[in-house]
């Protein structure tokens, strides 16, 4: 890590992406290999190419850099899907005979979102600072092998994105549009069909002709749309949550406890102290608070809303509270300091010596005394003529800041500089030049500018969590235990009925995936364990289990059905597709009746079903009919011969028959051919790219071993 990274956290180029260490999510792979006879480092295969644990870890690392705040289990599944897509694209990239050379990588890196959106990587003319980026990476490589390893993982992700851009650019270059297509679209935009029609509405027809959608009906629909309903393995789980929420008595107990600490006090070793009168606020908070003491001066904008008004007028030592936060904590806040957070713009040159933390590569020959002598000499020259500062950057051991002219940017008292460095910035005026000794060496510091900042408040917070008492948790446990005994051996319908009858929290994820991480509607720290249990080969349909969360909640789970990879179980998607299937069945009945009566006119059709004939204008780009979008009907209006009765049309909201009386042409200019061609090419390229990626996934031979390996790991543990 560059030396400046030890002095303060700087948001420049790579440092923000290199802070988080890799996470390993399977234990002791060597021992697992011996026990189970299968390499646990191979998590899957795509078209014969292995996916390793290391690759998945690397992809997970990249996602975690984005700081999405999502649980690790959720990010793992996203990482898997991204890795699968990346592998498929790389395979196609290689089949095309393309090659990602080192030269191409560095030429394309400026277009990657990680760098293209960072203005600090471009100069005033918009040129990408490629050489500075390379120097920063070389500095990291020399000073921190661990962070250089992190960069290599980031680089792999960038390589995948470059390959994707190049692959789709080559493929979509053949996706075109021509003037004839554009002219036809413009023509269709200006055409309107004048029609008479009769609609037999599904809803109205069903009142007298009810239909029941069977499981087989759903299955037939799914078979007609296999790609739409292709699914990975899932489980239908019933879950009942018994939450250990604090009672009113528990809340009163927490309030009494914090009031006692606030006003009456406890024995702190040297007698009774309260938060109100203690002379050592940080120690009192450390010993008695649920949250640690924060020594930082924070502006009003970063303080809790409840105390902002208090801080505006409070004197040092005054307290406020108790007050409730998030219905989970009681706070008492004491103001123990105020300071104006002046901002300082500075630059520095670091003269290191042999053995200092800045000499991580061990290449420095200069002694400490020689370093001081050189720093004093340079400092004297710069003090006499600040313009010469840049002439001595070549001596700086902090290559990262040296590449930026020694600039440290604007910093505040909260910037984590070492104390000596921070003190110099605080106590010296704009324009000052001085030499400061720190553990890293000797810094020649130039304060370029200063400006006043907002007032910062140092607040000591005494915090007590409102927790459920033992009595409360025992009551919840008894309730959960009674329920699981009651549902043993019962059907799923009985399980859900008992839960609902007692007004328990009940959820039923019908297609829970093994690696989705969280279960919507529950969201406890045991969701991942519930999923692991549901996918365990030893867990049978009808089994129940109870799980205890870290905060004392109890979750009772029931495994209703298992869905293996393939076409989805019809009943699991009934709520989604039943309305569509019901309309299909109604349409079949309506059309059968029309054909049986040999309908030859709209008037006959209207009389047959007790509806009315209507008239309307429709277009290919204007498919609104009878209050709904009906593209099939609009298309038929232009396909039927004039004044000829159409066949029955199965629409979205009913069955239609129509007669097209005439087609009118609107002569208003709807756009020019050239702009339509450009729009078509963009749309076609985007749609083709998305469809191609879906097709690659659908046609790929993907073997996912994670469930098997993770289950074995769980049994091993």
TrEMBL record:
Localization terms from the record: Cell inner membrane
UniProt GO molecular function: peptidyl-prolyl cis-trans isomerase activity
Pfam families: Rotamase_3, SurA_N_2
GO CC term, one of those recorded: plasma membrane
Superkingdom of source: Bacteria
Domain PpiC: 341-449, 567-662
Entry keyword annotation includes Disulfide bond: no
Predominant location: membrane
Alphabetically ordered keywords of this record: Cell inner membrane, Cell membrane, Chaperone, Isomerase, Membrane, Rotamase, Transmembrane, Transmembrane helix
Membrane topology category: Single-pass type II membrane protein
Family (UniProt): Belongs to the PpiD chaperone family.
UniProt name for this protein: Periplasmic chaperone PpiD
Biological source species: Elizabethkingia argenteiflava
């Amino acid at each position: 890590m560059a030396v400046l990274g030890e002095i303060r956290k700087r948001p420049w180029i790579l440092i923000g992406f290199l802070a988080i260490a890799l996470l390993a999510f399977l234990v002791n792979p060597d021992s697992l290999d011996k026990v189970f006879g299968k390499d646990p480092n191979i998590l899957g295969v795509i078209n014969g190419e292995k996916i390793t644990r290391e690759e998945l870890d690397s992809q997970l690392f990249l996602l975690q850099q984005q700081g999405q705040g999502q649980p690790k289990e959720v990010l793992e599944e996203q990482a898997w899907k991204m890795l699968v897509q990346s592998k498929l694209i790389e395979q196609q990239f290689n089949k095309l005979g393309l090659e990602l050379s080192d030269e191409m990588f560095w030429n394309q890196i400026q277009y990657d979102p990680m760098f293209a959106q960072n203005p600090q990587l471009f100069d005033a003319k918009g040129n990408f600072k490629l050489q500075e980026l390379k120097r920063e990476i070389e500095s990291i490589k020399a000073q921190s092998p661990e962070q250089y390893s992190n960069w290599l993982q980031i680089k792999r992700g960038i390589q995948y994105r470059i390959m994707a851009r190049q692959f789709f650019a080559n493929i979509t270059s053949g996706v075109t549009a021509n003037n004839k297509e554009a002219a036809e679209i413009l023509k269709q935009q200006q055409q309107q069909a004048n029609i008479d029609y009769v609609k037999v509405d599904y809803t109205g027809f069903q009142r007298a002709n009810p239909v029941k959608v069977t499981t087989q009906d759903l299955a037939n629909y799914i078979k007609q749309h296999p790609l739409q309903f292709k699914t990975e393995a899932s489980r239908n789980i019933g879950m009942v949550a018994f939450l250990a929420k604090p009672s009113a008595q528990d809340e009163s107990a927490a309030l009494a406890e914090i009031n006692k600490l606030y006003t009456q006090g406890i024995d702190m070793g040297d007698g009774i102290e309260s938060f109100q009168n203690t002379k050592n606020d940080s120690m009192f908070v450390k010993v008695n608070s649920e949250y640690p003491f924060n020594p930082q001066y924070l502006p009003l904008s970063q303080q809790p809303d409840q105390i902002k008004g208090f801080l505006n007028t409070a004197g040092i030592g005054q307290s406020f509270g108790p007050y409730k936060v998030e219905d989970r904590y009681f706070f008492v806040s004491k103001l123990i300091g105020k300071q104006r957070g002046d901002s300082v713009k500075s630059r520095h040159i670091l003269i290191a010596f042999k053995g200092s933390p800045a000499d991580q590569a061990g290449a420095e020959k200069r002694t400490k005394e020689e370093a001081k002598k050189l720093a004093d000499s340079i400092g004297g020259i710069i003090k006499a003529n600040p313009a010469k500062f840049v002439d001595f950057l070549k001596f700086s051991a902090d290559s990262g800041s040296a590449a930026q002219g020694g600039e440290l940017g604007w910093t505040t008292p909260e910037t984590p500089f070492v104390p000596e460095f921070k003190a110099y910035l605080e106590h010296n005026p704009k324009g000052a030049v001085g030499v400061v000794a720190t553990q890293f060496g000797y810094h020649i510091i130039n304060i370029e500018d200063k400006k006043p900042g907002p007032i910062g408040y140092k607040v000591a917070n005494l915090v007590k969590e409102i927790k459920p008492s033992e009595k409360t948790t025992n009551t919840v446990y008894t309730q959960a235990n009674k329920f699981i005994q009651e549902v043993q051996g019962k059907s799923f319908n009985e399980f859900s009925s008992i839960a609902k009858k007692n007004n328990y929290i009940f959820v039923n994820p019908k297609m829970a995936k093994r690696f989705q991480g969280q279960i919507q509607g529950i969201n406890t720290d045991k969701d991942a364990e519930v999923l692991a249990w549901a996918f365990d080969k030893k867990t049978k349909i009808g089994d129940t289990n109870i799980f205890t969360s870290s905060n004392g909640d109890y979750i009772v789970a029931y495994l209703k059905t298992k869905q293996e990879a393939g076409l989805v179980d019809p009943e699991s998607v009934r709520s989604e597709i039943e309305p569509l299937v019901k309309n299909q069945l109604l349409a079949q009945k309506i059309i059968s009746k029309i054909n049986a009566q040999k309908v030859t006119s709209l008037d006959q059709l209207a009389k047959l079903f007790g509806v009315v004939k209507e008239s309307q204008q429709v277009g290919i780009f204007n498919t609104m009919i009878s209050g709904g979008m009906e593209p099939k009907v609009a298309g038929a209006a232009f396909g039927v011969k004039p004044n000829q009765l159409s066949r029955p049309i199965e629409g979205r909201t009913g069955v239609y028959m129509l007669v097209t009386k005439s087609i009118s042409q609107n002569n208003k200019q709807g756009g020019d051919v050239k702009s339509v061609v450009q729009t078509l090419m963009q749309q076609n390229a985007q749609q083709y790219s998305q469809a191609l990626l879906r097709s690659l996934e659908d046609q790929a031979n993907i073997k996912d071993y994670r469930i098997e390996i993770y289950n074995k790991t769980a049994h091993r543990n």
